[in-house]
Amino acid sequence: MSKDSILQRVASGDANAVRECADQYGGLVWSLARRWSPTRADAEDAVQDVFVSVWRNAGRFDPTISQETTFIAMIARRRLIDRMRKAGRRPDEVALDEGSAQARADGRAGGSGVGAAEMGEDAARAEAAMRELSEEQQRVLRLSIVHGVSHEKIAASTGLPLGTVKTHIRRGLIKLRGILAEPEGVGVGAGKGAGS
Amino acid sequence: MRTLPSDDRVLDLLGEIVSGEGGERARSELRGLVGAHEAEALIEEFELAAAAGELASMGAVEAMPASVRAKVNEAAAQFIAQQRDDENELAPFGLDPGRGAPLGLAVAGWLAAAACLAIAAVAWLAKPAPAPTPSERMAALERSAPDVIEAPLAGIDTIGAAKNPLDHGVSGAIVWSDAKDEGYIRVSGVEANDPSKFQYQLWIFDAERPTGDLPQFRAEGLPEILTQRPVDGGVFDIPAGGEAVIPIDAKLPIGKGVLFAVTKEPPGGVVVSDREIVFLALRG
Q1: Contact residues, chain B, for A148 at CB < 8 Å
Q2: Rounded to two decimals, what is the model's pTM?
Q3: B188 near B169, Cβ under 8 Å?
Q4: Which of residues 232-261 of B touch A (CB under 8 A)?
């Protein structure tokens, strides 16, 4: 088995890696698309868009900075958020179909149960880091970066001042950013590159 | 990892951007606060952090439906074929990004990767869909773009200048769509070039990009538009036989292309031309 990651092989011109990328990360991209798209049809269109963006950006992946899973999730979120903004909508402002609102709320999309550890070491570290935040901070952070709820709506729904909401998000992101800087082997699971 | 700014406003903007709350306004403000390069680097760091946070919170992944997978497979085949197509088209035209002109090193690297992808694609795809040729793409543009124009090519002598010896009786046309920023040169009757000695370069004069600051090119009998600074339309080669269909590679969006001029330039092309025009096409 090659030491290079799938993205590194895509970047080096391995056409098989393009297909393997879709095999390996199809579920992840599809799940993210479902979370960030107002309808299933939009999600179906978005998946192709995301994969093309992933392949085009494969050369920018740096395994010393993040795991492949995290990098692909980043590209996916970027494209999905961009699509959402171009459509002038936010996920919390649209009628989610097929019960996905509940799925988004409780973090289960009706598929196979996969924990943070299976999402890679970055995710496992992020989960551990988020547990160090207060319940309130965790809730605000998840509403923002996972559910895409606007800061004002978070303030309205939680009863927290807008400034506090921004502070929670700020501190939460700084904490999450910190886990990406940790050396290999710190935290949960295998070294970087595992799970990808 | 970069040193984290102490400015709360910077951090708030990053939070807005990575959660989808802040759009171009937030990005612009961030660039103003920390500079464009630093802004992009910080955004990516926070995007990775947000992605890790979302992965940690997903709890489950849903298998991609077969119908969606089929579309992704189709996109993969198109992606690889497109890279192969780009490589097939661009390589013969002798583009030389090392000269600091039209394409940049990043594109050169990408072209190299695309070449590898294209080669590997042949092995992967048992029956790869044939990539459309420039001629086929030109025909498709003519069919699909309602604003497409076809301006006949003429030798430089048609605008009062002396005949260029490289123009052996040029014929053909510029096919161009402003709406799609896409076009082609269909040409014959031009001398084949040795790319190591000189190349042809296309220039597009855009009526909606007035500069009018090159009065030295104003002369009786010549179109006034020649006093404008044109947009680089790419460097290309003419093969033996003098016939080719060449995709135009406009480096800037064109509002209304009204004059297309081809000059003889050093290998790799130039940023500012001495305007040794070989042939041109005027929009009717």
Answers
A1: 19-20
A2: 0.55
A3: no
A4: none
